User: Fold these one by one.
Assistant:
Number 1:
Amino acid sequence: MTLNKINVKIYLEKGQDIPLNTFIPIFHRFIQKDLLEGMLVDVAEYTHVHEGPGVLLIAHEGNYSVDETDGKRGLLYNFKRASSANAEENMKTAFRRALKACELLEKEPELAGKMKFNPSRLRIFINDRLNTSGKNRGFSELEESIRPLLEKLTGSLIKLIPEMDPQKLTAFEVEVEKTLTVQNLIGKV
Amino acid sequence: MSQGPVSWKDVLKDEMPEDWAKEIDEYEAQIALNKQGKIEPRVFAETRLRRGAYGQRYDNGQRNDGLQIRKLTYPNPGLWKGPDTYWDAPGMERIKFPWGGMTAEQMDVIADLAEEYSDGIAHITTRQDIQLHFIHVEDTPDIMRRLAAVGITTREACGNSVRNVTACPIAGVCRTEAFDVTPYAKAIFRFMLGHPDAQDFGRKFKIAFSGCEHEACGLVNMHDMGFIAKLVPQTNTPVFDVYVGGGLGPVPYNAKRLFENLPVDEILPITQAVARVYGRLGEKKVRGMARIKFLVAKLGIEEFRRSITEERKILTPDPLWKSLIAQFVKQTEKPLKKATQLKSGSFPHGFLAWRKTNVYAQPQYGYVSVTVKVPLGDLTSRQLRVLADMAKKYVSETVRTTVEQNLLFRWVCEQDLPDFFYDLQTIGLSQAGADTISDITSCPGTDTCKLGISASRGLTRVISEKLQAQLEEMSEEVKKLKIKVSGCPNSCSQHHISDMGFYGVSRKAGSYTVPHFQLVLGGQWKNNGGSYGLAVAAVPSKRIPETIQRLTDKYVKERKPEETFQAFVQRIGKMEIRNLLQDLMTIPSHDAEPQIFSDWGDPREYTIADIGVGECAGEVVAPYEFSLTSAESKSFEAQVKLDQNDIKGALGLAYESMIHSTEAVLRTRNREYTGDAETTVAEFKKWFFDTGEFVKHVNNTQFAAYLFKAHSNFTSKAVDGWGADETHRQVEEAQLFMEAVHSYIANASPSPAPMPGK
């Protein structure tokens, strides 16, 4: 079974207090300049929703968002369409897209110095209950995809903390031992 | 991980009703055939619509990104899911919740679907449905299977069919109702779902149930068909007054009473008879004239009643007519816990304010119904899961959606209220102010709707936050007001029956287009949406908060004791209100206030038709603009005359407004055009209607139909016997025709020839 619809959320280190609506014109500019991978469609705003998807850049294969689920803000790349690639490639694609969005946001002139992501703290999950429900929720398969890739990329030991709530999607909170920046990783995946 | 290949079809095969599973399989087969090019896009579009799978904005493959029209290169450019609708474009799935009823298990499934297929949000609509946005059509069969497994069908959620059957959310726990209408709403839903007599309509058909005549309740007056519960004096026998032919949309119609005191056992055969007559006699070709309200108006209620009575006589008896009602009347809701009253003591911060506005004391001792105020009707998956847990913890899963885009928990034990409030706080849903001015309903507008003109959700977000912050200090009379915001004249937010309604329009200012909202005043929420408001003034979107402030300030300052807002508006007159807002209506220069030229929550320079901006800056006032100004002025004067009950004056002015609007269209090609009414209408027909030019740019044939109908009625003097209802509609149609001309002018590129009138 190919692991598909892998999602990566990179948590923020700095910038939790930036008003969410700041990201609306920024995402519109990303569309105008076609700065992100995938077919970019539109911007959706949920600033009125408590701990919700925040502001999304809607794209065909997957959405980018400044996401506030569980009260923790981060950049989420949310794969919606299944691909024919293998698990490692799917993981790489999601991670690469998330990192690129983080890099662009950190470089935005109006956010300069105010926003910093911490790629040592991630949430990785599979957006696919069909293949990850029941007795075997796919934690071992997901771990097999995540651990070697992240250890190779980061050059560091990583800690994977599974989220056991059966209602939630199969997910790991990821802690990379080494402190990393977006710049350390960009271009490596 | 599960070993494949598995599918939701396999996983859920024993959990779906057999007939529903079969229907979904057939739908999936049609998807496959469509992908092979074996079904016409037009046919497939109606197929998916009847399963609730709707189109969304930008599904035609282009979007103005603020700088240019950008082509959206969807992966399968040759594949369509409808005319001019790309296969891979994001769409919306509408999920029916008859009478708004929802179980905990269903809430959990909606949460899963929102997370896996949508953008993480489940949206409550103004007809007790839930919608998921930004989904792919190929995911819809599995979405439908997962819903079917928990007793939900999306069949006939859209398309020309019997839509969701709505009912008052407090039916059964209401202090003023005649009796609980829920079993009857359930019976009609089950009876009409997929009924052979309801498969050949020209348009959609909406049914509603009310338990009370004088409350807002089920809003029967604005429905295609509606039922108001009554008890026969002396005998206390439950009966229904049946209404037909109401509807909002661009031109609202008041429902007419079809039958009084109809025995409850007759509601299913009468509904069937109405469906058959509507299917047989209703308009099929001209979409804008196809709702049943037009048929009822055309035949007159007496003749319509006669047709239904005759049709009823020839129906083949169906055992379901009685058995469904008998079955559902037996199903009664039960509380989870024993009734207990709230004990006095110290309560969490905000609790008392919340209790005052969000808690309704049921007639059943010790129980209350709690409204969970849901901003813009949007819920996250996590919120839904916690709410599902609460539905099991506090009540017997007796939860309903409301047409005001909230959730209602019924049978909450009073003593549990502090804990209930605390649980809501953990998910950010403990906001007070349900059923107040800050509890604003909104349609999707330009966020996702293909028809959206202005950002209704963006405006709603801004004004509801502002009004919520002022709520505690606000005077009680202002607190009670209702605001509803639609992105276009179609009234999906039900703006016609609010104290202050708004609908999206646009105005041209030199080379720019400016987002506006038309202010609608005079509507009535109570009495089942008892009367409809009329447009007063178009104000730039960004100035709507100030518009509301001025109106509420004036109301507080000048109202008479006990005077409602509706009565206040009637007393002071629309002219005075327009004067109050006159400066706000004026469009400033782009340099002076650039923010006016974009919409709420959308930094792109505003456009309604992907036209570039700034091409001909410095242009002098075009002659068509003078014609449109005259049209605006006549339209407004018509409304004032209508308020004064001057029927003849209102009709004449409305017609004049239409002729000026038509003249504006002709002057877009011939700046010097002049002509009498006959010539103007004929020239318009020849050069703009028959050529398809006008329809192409306003995307609708009905607006031109309004003009032709008005011209015919005036020249034949058919209007001479008209009363208030017909005049109200004529004034509305003049206003809408003018709005269409604004759209035409904003959309159409200047065209050199032919030159009408030359």
Note: The beta strands of chain A are 6-14, 40-45, 55-59, 62-67, 74-79, 116-126, 158-162, 171-176.
Number 2:
Amino acid sequence: MNTPRISPETLRVLESFLERPTGWHYGYELSHQTKLKSGTLYPILMRLEKYKLLEARWVATQEGVPPRHTYRLTPNGLELARTRLAEAQSRWLVRQPALSRG
Amino acid sequence: MLEFPLRHVATVLLESAIRIAPADTREWGEAMRGELSFVDGQWAALMWAFGGAGMMVKYALISIFIPGRGQGIPPGDELFAKNVSLGKAALVGGAGCILASLLFFGAPPFRQAFRVALRPWYFMFQIASGDSQHGFQALAKRADSQRDPEGLAFCAVRIENSRESARLAEEAVRLNPNLLWVYAVVGMRHPELPQIGPWMARLKQWDTQNSLFHLIEAESIDRSHFRRGVWTPSTQEQEQAWHTAMAAAFQSPRFDDYFDRVAELNREVIPRYGFYDPYEVESREQLELPVAAFENSQRFAKSLLRSGEDFEARGDWKSARDKYWAVARFGQIVDSQGRTGFEHLTGTSLQAMAYKALQASSERGDNQAEAALFGYLAAKFDPISGEHPGFPKESAFGLNTARRNAAVVQISGLMILVCSGLLVIAVAILIVGRSSSQGTRPSVERAKPVATLILSSSAVGLLFSSVTLYLTYRPYWYIFQSAVLNGGRSQARDLIYFLNETKLPAGVSPRSYLLVHSLVYSGSPNFLFYVWTGVTLLGLIGLALILLRHFLSRMRVNRLQNHPRVP
């Protein structure tokens, strides 16, 4: 069976979420951890949210400052993230000898 | 000091982008806006805003080009793929541009314009191969195999090789004796042919009053002095024959160059063979009275005028006037019945000479009123300052417009080639990237967005160049159509100016072109052919090596995937 195509950027985002699997994450914090720019990170978050793999909520901070959007993986998202990362890791391990051999 | 303004600029930028974004993505814009206050550093905040604004603009564009697409969520398997919506929009737009450009090739004016645009390069190859009349020679072969007299006659009057031209003319007349006039047109181009004598004898019986045959005969006699590069003085017999021919020409009541018959032949032959080559119209201009006909008629006219002066000196005014009027009458016939600028020039020059002689004669006879009339006529027919200049200005657009349009057409044609080349490269990268999407080729994967950008911009360039080429060439297409359908030379001068300009690459001055040309062809006439063949072969070898490397690496990856080595 063909495995779904997955971009390295999406993997990085999922990996970042799995560092605190049940915690809420800010966009800037994710950007900082994954080294992704806002223009790359947010489309990924949008798609994950659209497929109900991610939930989002607004959080009020201090007065006069706009509220912040925070994100957390849903149970489905969590399961899928673990599966995909495991698959990616196994693929990477398979390739390592071949790549080192040139 | 700059912190406040930069963060403010970032906020304004992001908020502006949120305003133009589709409704379903604005929330995400607000999310980025909310984070902006927490980004460390003013430059980082600006970069954050740029990224977010770019994303919002991207979704705004997608919603314009693909309505209802919203966030551009890819279906099924591509859930985790990097966002490809803009890439897909670019590819769809690019494909549309390529399709529209290809549709242009369905239009005959565009196909002709494209051939004209590539003419400088094609022209160089033609000269390198020593085959500057390939089209006419191929057509002659077809007409020969089909035993088509009109097709043979069409080629006979245009082919520069005198022997081949004579052979085709004789074959055409043998198949259709009504085409006998072709001998006259071929004779005008090639008066040095040994067949001129028998040809003119037949023509004189067929069209008894035409002065053209006598002019060709005189020119043929003139050319007989110059054989194989050696000038031999004319014998008394040759001189006598020349005088007889010229006297017969000056006494003939008609002048017909048969160009109306050539035009009729064009109308028949061009559609029959689909020979829609604009440079063919240019070749019509080469059908002309021999240059020496002007010199011969001037020389003979001067001898008649001298003879008139001799009669006048002896007091024989009537004989003198007859000589002067013979020149004026012949000039008037050639001027009024000729169809080309050169024929008008020949006619007007003779008239001006004759009227000047008549003016002088009248002054000597103390007839001032008559002298004033002849003086007026002499000024009127002066070939340079007169009312009827020898070369009428038939050009509507002018040389500068022709030069500019030729440059636009050539650059557009070149841009079509360049854009097509870039398209091929971009498509090749995308195909290779698609086949190695498992991540085996990160470099190819990284090149894909660039390839998409090249593809879309090249497609837009291709369409823009195609539209420019079509619109610029369109007026010349109509002139060409008019020349083919009506056979006339109306506005043909504009087309010829334009075609002449297209023979040189845009921006190259004739002087430098000739210099390069002489250097390039100083050795082997096929030098350019070898150069281009070498360049093409190197390109092909390079492409083959790239493909070989690609397929070898793919094979290796496939082998590893089928037999993984798990540690």
Note: The first strand of chain A starts at residue 25 and ends at 26.
